[in-house]
User: Fold this.
Amino acid sequence: LSNGINVLVARFYGARHASDVEKTVHSALLVSLAAGILLLLVGLLGSPALLHLLNTKEDLYPGAVLYLRVYFLGMPALALYNFGNAIFSAIGETKKPLYYLCIAGVLNILLNLFFVIVCRLDVAGVASAISQCVSAFLVLRALTRVKDCYALDFHKAALDPATTQRILALGIPAGLQNAIFAIANLFIQAGVNSFDSLMVKGNSAAANADNLIYDAMAAFYMACASFMSQNYGAGKPDRVKKSYFISLV
Assistant:
């Protein structure tokens, strides 16, 4: 969904359509929050069934269910952070969201160590939900303080039907596209879970490297989308092509 938000805001911002930028920002806030709450409910209620489908080991099952539920508690905050990041990226400001995520990342590590080692909370001590709330708060606060058409005003939050439809029309296919590999990996995980617990733990740790590689590549196509949308909105087809080829290289 953040892809759809990014593209629309960049297009209207490049075209200098301030009213459309404002409508997109305030519609996208509610769409993102709704998506986060939906994922929260799916995660809380569906975690046991999902883990059964994945042939999760009985000795890992209780901890896995608890971990997933704690993780999904952060989904509304994660959705709101992605919303703020999409808007800042659309206008070319990528440093602020990076700083906020770095702060949340360091906090996440420190809280994990504190809850797990000091408080001995085991899986329940995973602090991702807290750190995600911090990153969401920081990025939303920054949006309320800007002096431009993309500024966030909670009193103006409303779903504009046409804008919401555009966000969903762009965002849902992009979301499904990104989910294809994740869904395929679920089948692989089901196979991995047929091995012993040590193999499962090792595979889970190693899988993080895959995310690092994918995110590094994704950064270029997000930048490409922002540049192309801004120039498309500004009516500069030559710069649209230039943005595309530079990103491709």
